[in-house]
Automatic annotation (TrEMBL):
Similarity-based family: Belongs to the SPCS1 family.
InterPro entries: Spc1/SPCS1
Location, primary (coarse class): endoplasmic reticulum
Name by which UniProt lists this protein: Signal peptidase complex subunit 1
Keyword Iron-sulfur (UniProt): no
CC terms in the record's Gene Ontology section: signal peptidase complex
Keywords from the UniProt entry: Endoplasmic reticulum, Membrane, Transmembrane, Transmembrane helix
Provenance organism: Corynascus novoguineensis
Keyword Transmembrane helix: yes
Pfam families referenced in this protein's UniProt entry, alphabetically: SPC12
Function: Component of the signal peptidase complex (SPC) which catalyzes the cleavage of N-terminal signal sequences from nascent proteins as they are translocated into the lumen of the endoplasmic reticulum. Dispensable for SPC enzymatic activity.
Transmembrane segments: 27-47, 54-75
Amino acid sequence: MAEQLLDQARDLFEGQIDFEGQKLVEVLVNAALTLVGAIAFFVGYFLQDIKLAVYIGLIGTAAVFVLVVPPWPFYNRNPVKWLPVGGITPPANLVVDDKMFR
């Protein structure tokens, strides 16, 4: 029981995400920060308030940080399936650039 809880906590704090999750994070960061920057710029421009624009930018950046930094479970939908240890034996006679390796 305690071992299962420890394993779950370890998995949560290790922060493992798969390659597809990394690609998703990259797209989310680029799109969200672009959107936040544009919104902050236009609100600041139309209201002529640089302080408000900076606050919108900071709050939006913090929201994007919360969205992408923790290893949320939807970033690990396609985990990598590794080969088992020692599952493959090297070929007996390997030839590379006309050199024989045994």
